[in-house]
Amino acid sequence: MGQKVNPKSIRLKINENWQSKWFGRHDFTNNLISDVKIRRALLTKLKDASISNIDIKRDANKVSIDIYSGRPGVVIGRGGAGSDDLKKFLSTFVKDKIQINIIEIKRPDGNAAIIGQNIANQIEKRMPFRRAMKQSIEKAKTTGVKGMKIQISGRLNGADIARSEKLAFGTVPLGTFKSKIDYAYITALTTYGIIGIKVWIYNGEKLMTIDELIN
């Protein structure tokens, strides 16, 4: 079962929380579409900022956006101008008041989304995929993660037949719900087609506290 579902979604309210937090019985569809547009727009605009995830909270007339970045300086910009530019950019399709919070990721080399993005960038620059995988795992080991697995699928190195390659270290217990699993799926666009990159990182066991459940 742990191999067939998203490790984060199956652990919601165990040790993972929703990335969209709002209540809208009548506006559910519009809010959902708006959240998707916000995330896609920010990920495209901030593609060089090592974005891990984007949390969105909605109140009566305000949208609060938390951007988790491994390179917060790229998001903030000189003198904080980047935040103002993002607000202006988002205001073109978000009617409510916008608040942007930029949160630094202390260990980007141990973050699944950032690792996946780095591997994708290296593959797009024609680096051998095995070297990119090995480098990512060696960097992750220095951050203290307990286990990691990388899977790359597609026409690897331009092969005629698509295949999958895996590389791992430590343990990644996907079947244990209290295991804190960081997961990401990233795609790399090459001249031979799309390469899919999956990254699983095991950070030990954890259960959410009451405060974390409420918030």
TrEMBL record:
KH type-2 domain span: 38-106
Gene3D superfamilies the record matches: 3.30.300.20, Ribosomal protein S3, C-terminal domain
Classification via InterPro entries: KH_dom, KH_dom-like_a/b, KH_dom_type_2, KH_sf_prok-type, Ribosomal_S3_C_sf, Ribosomal_uS3, Ribosomal_uS3_bac-typ, Ribosomal_uS3_C
CDD domains: KH-II_30S_S3
Pfam families for this protein: KH_2, Ribosomal_S3_C
Keyword rRNA-binding: yes
GO molecular function: mRNA binding; rRNA binding; structural constituent of ribosome
Free-text function comment from the UniProt entry: Binds the lower part of the 30S subunit head. Binds mRNA in the 70S ribosome, positioning it for translation.
Family to which this protein belongs: Belongs to the universal ribosomal protein uS3 family.
Name of this chain's protein: Small ribosomal subunit protein uS3
Lineage: Bacteria, Candidatus Berkelbacteria
